[in-house]
Amino acid sequence: MATTKASSGAPEDAYTAGPFVPEGAGLAELREAAAGCRGCPLHRDATQTVFGAGDTGARVMLVGEQPGDQEDRQGRPFVGPAGKLLDRALAEAGIDPGEAYVTNAVKHFKFTRAEPRKRRIHKAPSLRETAACGPWLAAELALVEPELIVVLGATAGRALLGSSFRVGEVRGTVLEREVHGRPELLVPTVHPSSVLRAEDREGAYRGLVADLEVAARALTR
What we know:
By secondary structure, the chain is an alpha/beta fold. It has a single domain (about 55-220), classed as Uracil-DNA glycosylase-like domain (Uracil-DNA Glycosylase, subunit E, 3-Layer(aba) Sandwich). The protein has 9 helices and 9 strands.
């Protein structure tokens, strides 16, 4: 049976998920433990933890920023408009979305409201919040052991590759880096939500597909 490093009574201001990550756990146990994570203040306002989805046999892992409004309500990653666009782009690039493991660098939805009961507006997580969630992402990587990681956007890039990461400088290229103590192949691209916000949405979408085609070719090496 997996053991937990510390009880759920760990200080809420510790800003690390480390004490909540069970040692030797499988994905199901990790998902269950993550539901009680209090590693940073983001859990206070979010509806629930949104853990990764997929299985340990996935060849490719897709890492995004954080859950959005729909993900927070449904408890699964990439089920909103950006996720639907991503699935379409993956399929067009030759990667079966059903065979990928999808997750986020941050597992709770961070948002703001202009007024009470108004629409929740996405707010980017801070570096401290992203670092706090790092132990969950490290545990997912260790279990899935993907052949390739697709990095979706700047927040995911900084979580995996450090604070100097700039998606515009390396998107659509194959990187070989050590991530959480493991050698990994990574292909960075933009987050699909940026495509939905783009003035030239078709051009932005074509760019995303082109980057994912690089990932598909890297999987056939």
